[in-house]
UniProtKB/TrEMBL annotation:
One Pfam family, short name: FtsX
Protein name (record): Antimicrobial peptide ABC transporter permease
Keyword set includes Transmembrane: yes
Record carries keyword Transmembrane: yes
Source organism (scientific name): Lacticaseibacillus paracasei subsp. tolerans Lpl14
Length: 857
């Protein structure tokens, strides 16, 4: 083995602690960088693979007028379309009178395939397959399941033959809503299609086999589906109108013929001639009947067809949003984490090369070339960088995504797909080498420019200078000798001061950011349903119905506090070339104040906003989406066809959803003076989910009420959103804590190594071990405190930026970091400093003073 090669391995052996520290720091940086960046794609790839295997529909049609076989053929006439009609309706069933999404099972169905988790599919007339989520309600194989008489089935009782998952319901906590029972769908079920008393199917599933290789959450996929669905919708609607027109026309003719026959029979015409005379009598009206049939068919069809995409399926959008938020966080947090790791690594490697000055000078004096000498230290740095990088790459890419996927317990079992992100791997290894090899190259190059004699002599220590604190005589004179020395040393080694503060501030900021992400997402629901919205339920009234009937039912509930009558509508808002649909409009039935149900506060001044007589108040996220501000004009168009332009009079704080608020006068300018209040905002005392369900059933059983929704549902969605990020946040906090400890330990080691002669000197002069430790640790404690304070500021800035990146179209995350986050970050950093101080004390006790003080001449 060549002398320089031996020297390389000897250097690694003699500085094994530092070598391992470099490897660990690089490993942690790469692990988090690659691992979190790979998690978003892994989540999407896993769901894509799962729904592809189960042939999830790309789009589906819900038709209250039914789906004919001709409409199925019309859909399939579009190139690349696979279509299947399914019998489907909402019914009441089970021990707790649950709302059930009931489907007719047909053997050979290829779209939305069921994935059995136990038992078998319903092959006999009395068998039923339940949603796996129904197991939570205590249902088991072999039990009897009963539907209510109003379900209109061929039979009411069935035997549970199996449990299954469906790609149309990927999340266990949400199954959608219905206008029967308590309004909340609890689970789905499949019975033989022959047992459903439905003359035609009510759902049309559409699938595009050629698009299944695309990411279902990508714009490329969505645009391709939208393009194909445009033609599918046209043909299905046209065929539906044709079918419905024929049925309506036949009914009109039948009715008119019966009426004519009755009149002719009453006139005394012979029975044998009545039929022919009636047919002759209505012939002049056939053209009119045709026109009537066309108008009626179009009107019925326009209100009976509801198209949905995958984004509209329960839980699907939330899953994609969660993956996008993780991807957004991965663009910031791991990058910052890696920068901290790289910065400390750069310092460590630089210090390693500087310590080898005498060795470099010796090799140079012995005649070795610059490249041969440099290669020794470059290999050391490259080896540490590559080793840490490779371990981090595979540990991060293969572990973190799998951990997160396994913790997504609210979703159906996904086929875990974790691909190696080769571009990301190459980038991370390149950055790791820049941090290690780059540092070594810069320092070695500088060292090799000096002559051997200069290199073999130690660098002259930096001369002490007066510091600002010394000029404050009353304070300086009260400090002890040791304290004065410590403060002078702090500013004597400015590079070490900056690196230590940056290292501690970075660690504190990372830990604080982990808590901040969790706290801020949680705070979204707290602030939305505490500071902005004060009602607990929204009750929708049937057309033309007065709110008195609903109030009577509500008054019977012990939880009822009050109900405010408002006019509600869904509208599309447009301004400056931007538009946004599904905006909720609310206007009080009287006056211009929504208190105590909604608090409107200005985003600029936090002052209370009063609804203007002739303008509109919109929420902050809506203003941002439309790129408007106070004083701008926007167009409001309701789903009923009314539209009007309003001036924006205020922008209100809001965290979830898009809202526009009008005074009673302004609303009537939009909807007309005949518009009546159609909604109740209801304030309730806190009550359980079962009590909410019971109240919902009572309300929906009344003809005056068509719907009710509770804010607890939205709160639960936000809670799930927060819960889905818990694994990532926990990983952030744990790895940040480990990095912080390694950084502190490494920086402290560098500090001791740089000043070993100085420490040995004061030890020779009679300082006790504890005094020697405090001589250097006092500086670490001061820098730790300063670093923690800077870490608070940096943590807030980093959290704010991540939350900005993670915002969705309709959700704002307010910057919130709880006292627990601050305490945890602070206590961890102080604890790490304490441990490092203890380790330093043990090390200084073993210092060979004579060896350390030997001259290098």
């Amino acid at each position: 083995m060549k002398p320089l090669t031996k020297n390389l391995w000897r250097n690694i052996r003699d500085s094994l602690g530092r070598f391992i520290a470099i490897v660990i720091i690089i490993m942690l940086g790469v692990l988090l960088f690659v691992g979190v960046k790979a998690t978003g794609p892994a989540l999407k790839d896993s769901l894509n693979t799962t729904v592809k295997a189960d042939h999830l529909a790309d789009s589906q049609l819900l038709a209250t007028t039914g789906v004919s076989k001709a409409q199925v053929k019309a859909a399939e006439s579009v190139s690349g379309v696979q279509a299947e009609a399914v019998k489907f309706k909402y019914v009441i069933g089970g021990r707790a009178s649950d709302v059930v999404a009931l489907y007719g099972y047909q053997k050979g169905t290829t779209i939305n395939r069921l994935h059995l988790t136990s038992g078998q599919l319903p092959t006999q007339a009395n068998q039923i397959v339940l949603d796996t989520a129904a197991k939570k309600s205590g249902y088991k194989l072999g039990q009897t399941y009963t539907f209510t008489s109003g379900s209109k089935l061929a039979r009411r009782t069935f035997k549970i033959s199996g449990f299954a998952d469906s790609p149309a319901y990927i999340e266990d906590t949400s199954r959608g809503s219905a206008n029967i029972g308590d309004g909340t769908v609890r689970y789905f079920a499949y019975i033989p299609a022959s047992q459903m008393k439905m003359p035609v199917a009510s759902q049309l599933n559409i699938r595009f086999p050629a698009l299944q290789t695309r990411d279902t959450f990508s714009n490329r996929y969505k645009d391709a589906v939208a393009t194909k669905m445009k033609l599918v919708k046209q043909r299905v609607k046209a065929q539906g109108e044709k079918d419905l027109r024929a049925a309506v026309y036949a009914n009109i003719v039948k009715t008119a013929t019966a009426k004519a026959q009755a009149q002719l029979a009453a006139s005394g015409m012979p029975a044998a001639a009545v039929a022919a005379a009636a047919d002759q009598a209505i012939k002049p009206q056939l053209s009119t009947f045709q026109q009537q049939a066309t108008v009626t068919a179009r009107k019925q069809l326009s209100t009976s067809l509801t198209w949905q995409t995958r984004e509209d399926l329960p839980g699907f959008g939330d899953y994609g949003g969660s993956a996008d938020r993780i991807a957004a966080i991965a663009n910031v947090f791991p990058v910052f984490f890696f920068l901290v790791a790289a910065l400390i690594t750069f310092t460590t490697v630089s210090r390693m090369v500087e310590e080898a000055r005498a060795q470099i000078g010796t090799f140079k004096a012995l005649g070795y070339g610059k490249w041969a000498i440099a290669r020794n230290y470059l290999a050391y740095a490259a080896l540490a960088g590559l080793l840490g990088g490779i371990i981090g790459v595979f540990a991060g890419n293969l572990s973190i995504p799998r951990i997160v996927l396994s913790l997504y317990k609210n979703y159906i079992p996904l086929q875990q797909v974790v691909s190696l992100q080769w571009p990301l791997i190459a980038l991370s290894l390149l950055l790791a080498l820049i941090a290690t090899l780059g540092a070594a190259a810069i320092v070695v190059r500088n060292e090799l420019t000096e002559k051997p004699a200069a290199l073999m002599r130690p660098r002259a220590p930096k001369s002490a200078k007066r510091i600002l604190l010394e000029r404050i005589t009353p304070l300086w004179s009260r400090l002890s000798f040791n304290q004065k020395v410590s403060y002078r040393n702090l500013f004597r080694y400015k590079s070490r001061l900056v690196m230590t503060i940056l290292g501690i501030a970075g660690g504190t900021a990372l830990i604080l950011t982990g808590f901040g992400i969790k706290d801020s997402i949680t705070a979204t629901g707290v602030q939305q349903y505490g500071d902005v919205i004060h009602y607990q339920a929204i009750v929708r009234l049937a057309d033309g119905k007065k709110p008195a009937a609903a109030r009577d039912i509500l008054a019977k509930s012990k939880a009822y506090r009050s109900a405010g009558t408002v006019s509600g509508a869904v509208a599309k808002l447009s301004a400056k070339g931007h538009s946004l649909s599904d905006v909720n409009l609310f206007a009080p039935a009287n006056g211009n104040d929504l208190e105590p149900y909604v608090s409107l506060r200005s985003t600029a001044s936090n002052r209370k906003l009063t609804l203007p007589r002739h303008g509109i108040v919109i929420t902050s996220k809506l203003a941002k989406a439309l790129n408007v501000t106070t004083g701008d004009t926007l167009k409001v168009a309701t789903t009923n066809g009314q539209s009007k332009r309003f001036t924006i009079k205020g922008i209100a704080k809001n965290y979830v959803g898009h809202f526009g608020y009008l005074s009673n006068t302004a609303y009537h300018q939009l909807a007309g003076n005949s518009a009546k209040p159609n909604t109740l905002l209801v304030r309730l005392q806190p009550q359980s989910s079962k009590q909410n369900d019971r109240l919902a059933k009572q309300l929906l059983n009344h003809h005056a009420i068509v719907g009710i929704s509770f804010t607890t549902t939205a709160k639960k969605t936000l809670s799930n959103m927060s819960g889905m990020l818990d694994p990532i946040v926990l990983i952030f906090i744990l790895l940040s804590a480990v990095l912080s400890f390694v950084v502190l330990y490494n920086l402290n080691n560098i500090n001791v190594s740089e000043r070993i002669r100085e420490l040995s000197t004061i030890k020779v002069l009679g300082f006790f071990d504890r005094e020697v430790t405090m001589y250097i640790s006092r500086e670490s404690i001061v820098l730790t405190v300063i670093g923690i304070v800077f870490g608070y500021l940096l943590g807030n800035l980093l959290t704010a930026y991540i939350l900005y990146q993670a915002e969705t179209e309709a959700v704002v995350f307010p910057l919130t970091i709880s006292i627990v986050g601050y305490l945890t970050a602070t206590l961890l950093m102080l604890a790490f400093t304490g441990v490092v101080t203890w380790l330093t004390h043990r090390r200084l006790q073993r210092v060979d003073m004579v060896e350390a003080l030997k001259s290098n001449e």
